[in-house]
Amino acid sequence: MKKPSRKFSYWQSVTTGCLLGLALITLPSQNESIAQVSFQPAQIKPVDFTLPPDSFYPQPEPDLEAPVLTATGAAVLDRQSGVFLFLKNPDQPLLPASTTKIMTALTSLEHYSLLDVLMVPQVFGDGQDMSLVEGELITVQALLHGLLISSANDAARVLAQNYPGGQQEFVAAMNQKAKELGLENTSFVNPSGLDNGDNELLTTEESKTSARDLAWLADQALKNETFTQIIATKAITLRDPQGKYYHPLYNLNQLLWEDPRVKGVKTGWTEKARECLVTLTEQNGHELVYVVLGSTDRFGETRQLINWVENHFRWQEVSPPQSTPD
User: Fold this and answer.
1) Which helix (H) or strand (E) holds 40?
2) How many structural domains compose the chain?
3) Can you give the residue range of the structural domain that contains 232?
């Protein structure tokens, strides 16, 4: 399944007397782009694209300078229009760290029922966890909370190893989903996002994604109501169905605690990947997805991007031309 026209970095609509175009302007001193809307002389050309009624498209103020980031890759996506407001190395394959768990959650949501009860086959002690106990029975819903709130690697492993065929087939399903979504620079080798190491469940290969791909992946996952509710949860205590074990969870996304505009999505960090963050905001009635990969200050640079959009972009209403009877 290929992505619709939003896969391209521009959009067009023929209107009365003018052509409204969106171009990505590349700054000469940085590998960064910002979206700029401009009116140009009419050139009537058939375009296979239909605007919904009363659409809103982001428009930057004139001569807008893009922010300078340490992040290797970054993107800002307006969900309604499908327009990218900011891009830096958008298609460069990079290590995703625990942002991988967005796809882990999406794959789990498509396979399991939330009330399915899975068994913890063994204790996993790599990185972040939700302190699962060997032999514990726990619902998929609880595992998804641990996965997305506390970035629990043990939750990712349990979800993957209970999949038909085990973790190998689960990762294959993750990659198949990436292919269906048209994520051309994305591939996964494990469900957690951990870097390669001595653990026998990890391979010599590395997971990869890009800022643009990760923005589209988050946009797709946000269509799932359960995913959207979980990523907005700051703290929760879960227990297994038998009431034997309790798991207090605290969201690792610092911005979710500090900024009311922020509604999730997922943190990520490893030594090789550096700091990564995918963020959903609601700003001026619009939802935006922010991605930073390979940053030295994921929260600060995401906050910088949020304020940059807040201060320098406005949404312009665009209505498709009205057809008249012959």
Assistant:
1) strand 32-41
2) 1
3) 97-312
